[in-house]
Structure formats: structure tokens, C-alpha cells
Design goal:
Layout lengths: L10 E7 L16 E2 L5 E5 L10 E5 L5 E5 L12 E6 L5 E5 L4 E5 L5 E5 L12 E6 L5 E5 L4 E5 L5 E5 L12 E6 L5 E5 L4 E5 L5 E5 L14 E4 L5 E5 L4 E5 L5 E5 L7 H9 L1 H9 L14 H7 L7 E6 L4 E6 L4 E7 L2
Antiparallel strand pairs: 1-24, 2-3, 3-4, 4-5, 6-7, 7-8, 8-9, 10-11, 11-12, 12-13, 14-15, 15-16, 16-17, 18-19, 19-20, 20-21, 22-23, 23-24
Helix pairs in contact: 1-2
């Protein structure tokens, strides 16, 4: 594992959840997850080219039990075209953004549709390619209005409350914001994708600080897609453009980087047991080949050829047990880590 000496690591690999599947049990280009209060994991899937069969929210848990799917492909209430990010409020309602329909759909734990809001535009309450979404302690909903370069705040019913941010690279400005999280202290942290940084705000939208500079070195970011904050203020960032996850302390100092350490998930192990020829072929395969390709030092090239590496880490989320979940989009899986310090 890349990063600090093992004795000083913040995170340690635990397990993998997932298997590529166009429908039913499995994932196809998962984009996010929420570790919900009912003990289940809800995982939106975009599918390749927004294919009809792959679009859905898959429901599973830390033990890889499968509970079904909902929010399938379609234009009507309860259907989605391009589900992006998901959040949960205190009442057990799940909010899913759709960057194609420029809307938010709300479901209960059983996948029953409750309501939806949003339309294309740049006015108050209108959206353009929404992605990240989070709920605060009062169940106010914050949405990364990505193509409008702002954050919007709504009531749980979808009534517009406030907005902050504008296009630019200065303090409090955005360039296609993506991941949104509400920290335990109520502050908002935004993955400012196009500006290669994390920005921090008060719940009222006042700028507090920015973390990270553009680059590939430890502590630098390239197109960050998500951020999660623990009770210590530690930041866990899905560094999408660098195909890694980085951990920072509350002041933004670099602590650790992860490239991926995935083993077989329960679903994958079951598949290979049934399909023995593929299982035998895998046993004989070199899963960490010496690359003989152009751009061998490029993280994207490495991830495309080496299975254990993250390949398009879309988001990072925490649960109440101290686990860290990385949604590994192009490998159709969730990698789970546990805190060791």
C-alpha cells in the first residue's frame, strides 16, 4: 500500500463488494453510495452510455447480501436516466441526483418513489447537471449544481432556500463542483473538480478555507470527485484524475494515499466457482504485469491494466463504524477500508 509507514497508516484495506452486471445483483459503472441508517448500502449505477438495462440503484450491505434494485431507466416518476450521487436524511429518505434530467428524485428504503424536483436552467432552484448531494442535521439538502458552478440549498420537499458560488478559481468560486459533504461540525466541504481542490464553507455559504493544489505529487489533487470528513476533521478525498484516494488531516496536511488493494468480492468468488474455466484462467493470470506500454508512469494507464488499482474512483463515503467506502467506477465495485488510527 502506498503512503506512510504501515505503523502510521490511517486506513487499511478490508474487503471488496461488487461484480459487473448489467442488471440485478451487481454494478455497472457505479457513481456513489450511501451507507444508510438501515444498515444497507445504496449504490447508483449509470451504465455504459446510459444503457437502459444498467441504470438502477443496487441495494446490498457490508456482507454482500443482495436486496434488489430500484430507480431504473426511464423518464417518469421514480425512473432515472443518469443517476449520479445519493444522500440520506434523518427520516430515511434517499435523494438521488440525475445529471441528464437535471433533477432530484426521492425514495424510501424500499425504493418507493416519494417526490422529485428540478428542471434545466440557471435560475433559483433550477439545475444544470447536478452531481454531489448531502443532507445536514436539519435535513436541508445541498446540491452541487455542477454546470452552473454553484451550490444550492433546498428544503427536503425541494423548495429553494439559498445558493452560493460562481464560476472562477478564486476563494469561494467553482469550476464544475462535484462531491458535497456535511462535516460533523456542520461545515460544508466541496470537491471543486475543475480547480483541483477542496473548499470548505459554513452552512450559510461563507468561505472558510481551501485545500490542495493541482498536481500528481503526494498532497496534490487532479480533478477530485468526492470528499468525506470524520469527527477529527480528517479529509478523505477521491482524487479521480490521479486514480487514487488521499487522506489529509484537519489542516490539510497529507497523511496517506491509496491506489487500491482489492481482493475478490463474495459475488465474484461465487461467479468464478460456478464458471470454473474462468476461475482457472484467473488463477494462472499475472494480475500485476510489468507494463510495456506508452505512458507507463501515467496513473490512468496503470489503472487500465492492473486490476487492484482504482480506476475512476467516483466518491468516498464513511459509515458510523469507521469504515471508508470507495466507489470504484470503471471496475464496477466498492472497496472498503477501515480506520487503524
Amino acid at each position: 500500500m502506498d503512503g506512510l509507514d504501515k505503523r502510521d497508516q490511517v486506513l487499511e484495506y478490508s474487503l471488496t463488494i461488487g461484480l459487473i452486471a448489467m442488471e440485478g445483483r451487481g454494478f455497472e459503472y457505479p457513481t456513489d453510495l450511501v451507507a444508510a441508517r438501515d444498515g444497507r448500502l445504496y449504490v447508483p449505477n449509470r451504465a455504459r452510455d446510459l444503457g437502459e438495462r444498467g441504470v438502477r440503484v443496487t441495494v446490498t450491505d457490508i456482507d454482500s447480501e443482495y436486496y434488489g434494485t430500484f430507480a431504473h431507466h426511464g423518464q417518469g416518476d421514480g425512473y432515472m436516466i443518469s443517476p449520479m450521487c445519493i444522500a440520506e436524511d434523518s427520516r430515511g429518505h434517499l435523494y438521488v441526483t440525475d445529471d441528464y434530467k437535471h433533477s432530484v428524485s426521492v425514495f424510501d428504503y424500499d425504493g418507493n418513489f416519494i417526490r422529485a424536483w428540478g428542471e434545466l436552467g440557471n435560475g433559483e432552484g433550477q439545475l444544470n447537471g447536478p452531481s454531489g448531494i448531502a443532507a445536514d442535521a436539519e435535513d436541508n439538502i445541498y446540491i452541487a449544481d455542477t454546470n452552473n458552478d454553484r451550490i444550492q440549498k433546498f428544503t427536503p420537499s425541494g423548495k429553494f432556500m439559498a445558493a452560493f458560488g460562481s464560476s472562477g478559481s478564486g476563494a469561494g468560486e467553482f469550476n464544475m463542483p462535484w462531491g458535497v459533504t456535511v462535516a460533523p461540525d456542520g461545515n460544508l466541504y466541496i470537491a471543486d473538480w475543475g480547480n483541483d481542490r477542496i473548499q470548505r464553507f459554513t452552512s450559510g455559504g461563507e468561505f472558510v478555507a481551501a485545500y490542495g493544489t493541482s498536481g500528481r505529487c503526494d498532497g496534490e489533487l487532479l480533478r477530485p470527485s468526492g470528499v468525506a470528513i470524520d469527527e477529527r476533521g480528517y479529509m478523505y478525498v477521491s482524487d479521480w484524475g490521479n486514480e487514487r484516494v488521499q487522506v489529509f488531516d484537519a489542516d490539510g496536511a497529507f497523511l496517506q494515499k491509496l491506489r487500491g488493494e482489492a481482493g475478490l468480492s463474495k459475488w465474484a468468488a461465487n461467479f468464478l466457482e460456478i464458471n470454473r474455466e474462468e476461475g482457472e484462467a484467473r488463477k494462472k493470470s499475472n494480475l500485476e504485469p510489468e507494463l510495456e506500454v506508452d505512458n507507463v508512469d501515467d496513473p490512468h494507464t496503470q489503472s487500465a491494466y492492473i486490476e487492484k488499482y482504482f480506476w475512476a474512483p467516483m466518491s468516498v463515503k464513511l459509515d458510523d463504524e469507521g469504515r471508508v467506502y470507495v466507489t470504484d467506477g470503471n471496475r464496477h465495485r466498492i472497496q472498503v477500508y477501515r480506520r487503524v488510527m
